Structures are given as structure tokens and as C-alpha cells.
Amino acid sequence: MNSNYSVINNTLSQKGILLVAVTKTRPAKAILELYNAGHRDFGENRVQELREKEEILPKDINWHLIGHLQSNKVKYIAPFVHLIHSVDSFELLIEINKQAIKNDRIISCLLQIHIATEETKFGLSEEEVFNVLNNVKITELKNIRISGLMGMATNTDDKNLVRSEFRTLKILFDKIKSEFFSNDDSFDQISMGMSSDYTIAMEEGTTMVRIGSLLW
Ligand SMILES: *Cc1c(COP(=O)(O)O)cnc(C)c1O
């Protein structure tokens, strides 16, 4: 374990921001070191790797799926996943709801918003997220909980660009909160910020950062 962990985690927790320790490609042993230091929230971006680790690691870990999720793989994580950060279609919400029912659970989800200038990043446009939330069938999905938004900024040294992308996400969050969730306290999370840009995300109102490389 890198000594960065305590420093970063202390800074974040003082502000009430959750650190999701991103453990992709790290062995179970590395996760256990943070677990033994008291950490419980871990993020993986691939379903297969998440399943393998969940099976062998302690059951009180909160597992976050942070990478792109295909509908046909939801069933593998539905029994245990704590939060899915990467919901990018209404069809995916339907499938998550279906698998949540099978497991007699309510699964918390974030809607991933495309805020970066790169073409390659997944996520909904502002128009698409409103279409999802306005879909008349959304109220039938009783076994999902939409807990907020997630976004990934452009991978760049241009801090002003990153800041403006995070700011866009926060403004969108506030707008969606007031239009769709004004009486619903469960819509309260903004997952933004990674190793290279989490300090900017903190200044722009993140509630949850996903940090990998900086911790190891
Ligand atoms: C890998 C990954 C992270 C963490 O990235 P680092 O630069 O290692 O902090 C955060 N979010 C997602 C979606 C990732 O895939």
C-alpha cells in the first residue's frame, strides 16, 4: 500500500467525499491491505474481474462497477453490486431492474453523462439523460434507485477544460435534482474525479471520487 492512501482518504473524508478505490488490474492482496486499513468501497471497471474478486474477498465490501456495462452481463453482478456508476441507456435500466427483482434487491445506479470532448468516452448527452428521466415507464422500475450522475473529464493537462467539464456536470445535476428529484433525498451523488483531476473535482462539488493509480 502506498502511503498516499491515508493522506488522500483523510482529505476526502473531512469533506464528506467518498473515496472509491479503483482496483482494476490489482491483485486481491492489494485490496486486502486497504480493507485491513478500514476501507470498504472498491471500484472495478470490468464485470469479469469484479466477479472474481467479489468471490474471494470479504462480503462486507461495497463493490462499485465503474466501467461500461453490457446488458447481458448485469446478471453476474446483480446479486451483490453496491452501485453501478455507468448506466448509459434506458434499456440498461430495464435490465438492471429485472435482475434486481430476481435477487430481491434494489440496485443503486448513477447515470453516466458524456462531459468530455473525446469521442471515445461513454455516456449520455444532456438531451439523452432527459429522455431517460422523462420516459413514462421509468416509474415502473421499482427495483432501481437513481442516486445521481457520473462523468469523466477529458484526459488532458488543460485544467481549465477539466474544470469546465466538471462544472457542467454539477449544473446538470442541480437541474435534474430540481426537476425530477426535488422531494427525493436519494438523488444526491456526483461521481467525478480520478487520480489526475480529483482536486479540481473537489472544488467543483464532487461527492465521490474514483482513484486508482495514485493509491498504489
Ligand atoms: C481506471 C478508472 C478510474 C481511475 O483512474 P486512475 O487514473 O487510475 O485514478 C476512474 N474511473 C474509471 C471509469 C476508470 O476506468
Kindly summarize this structure in a few lines:
With 216 residues, this protein is α/β, with parallel strands linked by helices. 39% of the residues lie in helices and 19% in strands. The protein has an eight-stranded parallel sheet with strand order 7-6-5-4-3-2-1-8.
Walkthrough of the structure:
There is one protein chain. This protein is of the alpha/beta class and 216 residues long. Helices cover 39% and strands 19% of the residues. The chain has 8 helices and 8 strands. The protein has helices at 4-14, 28-36, 47-56, 74-77, 90-102, 126-134, 159-180, 198-203, and strands at residues 18-22, 41-44, 62-65, 83-87, 107-113, 144-151, 189-191, 208-211. An 8-stranded parallel β-sheet has the order 7-6-5-4-3-2-1-8. The radius of gyration is 17 Å and the shape is globular. The relative contact order is 0.15. The mean pLDDT is 96. The protein binds pyridoxal-5'-phosphate. Pyridoxal-5'-phosphate (PLP) binds next to strand 8.
